[in-house]
């Protein structure tokens, strides 16, 4: 007994003669005894049997006997989006794009045929064995040429009803678009946008279009939802405009694993560097000279720079945990030019878990000096400071007064993750380039590009001239140079903090990096920690240049502000910053317990 509706029960049935499985709606005659009830079922059958589309539940056949009416439909073994939502509560943005594209495909087909669905909701989007979505349940569907009286009937699911439907102004294609916006919001945020404990209040919120957008949503997602949930139907985005929106320029998987029905999938967005590294791998391990095609001189030159070093020393040792491929370059917001690359980020959205999906840690020595700082020491100190601050700070709507920037303040302005092959690369605001390799070693190229700092462990430091790199380090040097070239050419700086020449300072070491579904955490040998939030490109940097602890916040517009943590504890901070500090504390606490 898969499901039960207002008039019918739905069963999974197998035809023993063909071994084919169907979803069968069984409607007792007693439930449709009145003429208007019978007309409703007849309308559903006549309308559905003429629909043939990849993303519409297939109508097979029907018959009736003395007891009931039996409608045989395509069987969708993965149930519905409602079941996935109940198990997951929120979905990642790439997943939402995956499902919305299929819903829109089916909905465009319906609208072109002059059909209004009038009951779009999670429970009416069915998922088959191959994780393909099918729009179903046409019990409330109607043709656009029906009488005005029927079009103005209030029908559908309360949380998804459009304002014009509640006001009895008629149900048009735009009303289905409204419901689509409610579906998108529900999948991303965990609950419908207008849901309240009181139905009258829900209807009031819908009519006034009163809803809130969580801070963790990406700007493109917020803009798209706002473009759909507009009071005037004529002001809403069309289905074509929705597909052309900035939100859909983000990574969309070709297929989702069945496990995503109950848990967040590990998605692998395309990496801008992937094609070059694929060529390198093919050159080293898979290319047969006799069959090799001549590539461009540019490709050959790029590859040779990497291959020459890589053949001398292998640094491709895989880490013990599961990794994903690198990240996708995506625009910051709808206002950004599509041709402007930004920080490499995985555009994955809100998920309440902060468990790391992958991470890297610098090798430690058992003979560490007493003053040799470790990642665990940084985490312990930060947890203590943040816990004290957040437990006693008052509620506030704005941040304290911003301080002047510290003279030697250094932060990560660019980064690229290729840990499934080589390691994690980053560029600091002083223009130095660092790579924490998968084997736990660390290499830094100085801002003037003349000196290389090499750390086999966190307390062993070797310095070489670029012209005198030892033979055994040539391979790592080749990768370091490639990362440097890639970040200089393809990535934008992530904030307005100035670049500084800091040649007199010792090389900064990345001790550990951790990626969750929502953010990237980086811990440095100076005691500084930086957290980059993927969806809106905000950043929080916690540092201790002197005795006081400073919090630097880089907002969505890439403007930076620095505050004393003690001032935040005393005066409070904006909800935007408070949310991020709470998240960082939770992430650090999980790392401390790991």
Structure overview:
- One of its GO terms (biological process) is regulation of cell communication.
- It catalyses: L-seryl-[protein] + ATP = O-phospho-L-seryl-[protein] + ADP + H(+); L-threonyl-[protein] + ATP = O-phospho-L-threonyl-[protein] + ADP + H(+).
- Keywords: Apoptosis, ATP-binding, Cell cycle, Cytoplasm, Cytoskeleton, DNA damage, Golgi apparatus, Kinase, Nucleotide-binding, Nucleus, Repeat, Serine/threonine-protein kinase, Transferase.
- InterPro entries: Kinase-like_dom_sf, POLO_box_1, POLO_box_2, POLO_box_dom, POLO_box_dom_sf, Prot_kinase_dom, Ser/Thr_kinase_AS.
- The chain has helices at residues 35-48, 81-88, 93-112, 148-151, 163-166, 173-189, 199-208, 219-228, 239-243, 274-286, 297-310, 375-392, 474-490, 565-571, 575-593; strands at 3-4, 9-15, 20-28, 59-64, 68-74, 115-116, 125-127, 133-135, 142-143, 328-329, 344-345, 358-361, 412-418, 423-428, 433-437, 442-445, 451-457, 460-465, 510-515, 519-524, 529-533, 539-543, 550-554, 560-564.
- By secondary structure, the chain is α+β, with helices and mostly antiparallel strands.
- It has three domains: 3-74, Phosphorylase Kinase, domain 1 (2-Layer Sandwich), CATH 3.30.200; 81-261, Transferase(Phosphotransferase), domain 1; 358-593, POLO box domain (Arylsulfatase, C-terminal domain, 2-Layer Sandwich), CATH 3.30.1120.30.
- It has a seven-stranded antiparallel β-sheet. Strands 13-14-15-16-17-18 form a six-stranded antiparallel β-sheet, with helices on one face.
- A hairpin with a 3-residue loop joins strand 19 (510-515) and strand 20.
- Helix 10 (274-286) crosses helix 11 (297-310), helix 12 packs parallel to helix 14 and helix 12 (375-392) packs across helix 15.
- It is elongated and about 90 Å long.
- It starts with a strand and ends with a helix.
């Amino acid at each position: 007994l898969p499901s039960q509706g207002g008039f019918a029960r739905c069963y999974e049935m197998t035809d023993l003669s063909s071994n084919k499985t169907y979803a069968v709606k069984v409607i007792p005659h007693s439930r449709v005894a009145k003429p208007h009830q019978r007309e409703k079922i007849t309308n559903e059958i006549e309308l559905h049997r003429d629909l043939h589309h990849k993303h519409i539940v297939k109508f097979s056949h029907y018959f009736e006997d003395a007891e009931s009416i039996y409608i045989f439909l395509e069987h969708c073994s993965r149930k519905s989006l409602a079941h996935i939502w109940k198990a997951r509560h929120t979905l990642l943005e790439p997943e939402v794009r995956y499902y919305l594209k299929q819903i829109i495909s089916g909905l465009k087909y319906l609208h072109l045929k002059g059909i209004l669905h009038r009951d779009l909701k999670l429970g009416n989007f069915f998922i088959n064995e191959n994780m393909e979505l099918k729009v179903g349940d046409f019990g409330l569907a109607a043709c656009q040429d029906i009488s005005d009286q029927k079009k103005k009937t209030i029908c559908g699911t309360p949380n998804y009803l459009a304002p014009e439907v509640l006001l009895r102004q008629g149900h048009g294609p735009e009303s289905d678009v409204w419901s689509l916006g409610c579906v998108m919001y529900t999948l991303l945020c965990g609950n419908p946008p207008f849901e309240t404990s009181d139905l009258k209040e829900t209807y009031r919120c819908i009519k006034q279009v009163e809803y809130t957008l969580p801070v963790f949503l990406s700007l493109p997602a917020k803009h798209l939802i706002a473009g759909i949930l507009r009071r005037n139907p004529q002001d809403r985005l069309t289905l074509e405009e929705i597909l052309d929106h900035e939100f859909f320029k983000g990574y969309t998987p070709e297929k989702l694993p069945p496990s995503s029905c109950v848990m967040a999938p590990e998605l692998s967005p395309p990496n801008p560097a992937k094609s070059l590294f694929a060529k390198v791998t093919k050159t080293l391990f898979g290319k047969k000279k006799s069959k090799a095609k001549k590539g461009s001189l540019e490709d050959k030159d790029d590859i040779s720079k990497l291959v020459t070093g890589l053949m001398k020393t292998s640094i491709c040792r895989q880490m013990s945990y599961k990794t994903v491929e690198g990240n996708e370059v995506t625009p910051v917001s709808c206002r950004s030019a599509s041709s402007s690359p930004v920080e490499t980020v995985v555009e994955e959205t809100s998920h309440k878990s902060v468990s790391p999906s992958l991470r890297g840690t610098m090798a430690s020595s058992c003979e560490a000096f007493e003053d040799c700082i470790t990642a665990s020491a940084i985490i312990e100190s930060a947890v203590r400071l943040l816990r004290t601050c957040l437990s006693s700070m008052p509620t506030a709507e704005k941040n304290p007064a911003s301080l002047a920037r510290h003279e030697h303040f250094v932060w990560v302005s660019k980064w690229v993750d290729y840990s499934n092959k080589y390691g994690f690369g980053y560029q600091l605001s002083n223009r130095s380039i660092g790579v924490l390799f998968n084997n736990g070693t660390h290499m830094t190229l100085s801002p003037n590009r003349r000196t290389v700092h090499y750390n086999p462990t966190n307390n062993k430091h070797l310095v070489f001239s670029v012209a005198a790199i030892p033979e055994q380090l040539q391979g790592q040097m080749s990768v370091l140079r490639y990362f440097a070239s890639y970040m200089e050419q393809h990535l934008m700086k992530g904030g307005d903090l100035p670049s500084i020449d800091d040649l007199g300072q010792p090389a900064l070491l990345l001790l550990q990096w951790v990626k969750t579904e929502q953010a990237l955490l980086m811990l440095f040998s100076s005691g500084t920690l930086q957290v980059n939030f993927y969806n809106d490109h905000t950043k929080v940097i916690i540092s201790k240049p002197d005795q006081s602890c400073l919090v630097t916040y880089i907002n969505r517009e890439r403007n930076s502000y620095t505050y004393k943590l003690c001032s935040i504890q005393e005066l409070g901070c904006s909800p935007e910053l408070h949310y991020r500090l709470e998240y960082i504390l939770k992430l650090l606490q999980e790392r401390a317990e790991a």
